[in-house]
Amino acid sequence: MNPYYNQSYTRDQINVILNKINVQLFNVDGEEETVDIYTKFNIIDLSSGTRTVVISFHKPNKPFDYLFR
After folding, report:
1. How many angstroms separate the Cα of 60 from the Cα of each of 12, 37, 39, 48, 63?
2. Distance of CA 12 to the CA centre of its chain
3. C-alpha Rg value of the chain to the nearest Å
4. pTM
């Protein structure tokens, strides 16, 4: 297990927090849909010596078993 993972939260604590995180989205048919999302951060070191940070939002494919990684 990576020592930087925060594993001190219980499953119930994680569920309480995640149940509060909802976003109203519209699916391809134009119907409003409430979904859970998670954010993914990628830090890319470029050959020029600069960094680019990419932040993306995703609908989870499986239940969360951690709060922060």
Report:
1. 18, 6, 10, 34, 7
2. 18
3. 16
4. 0.41
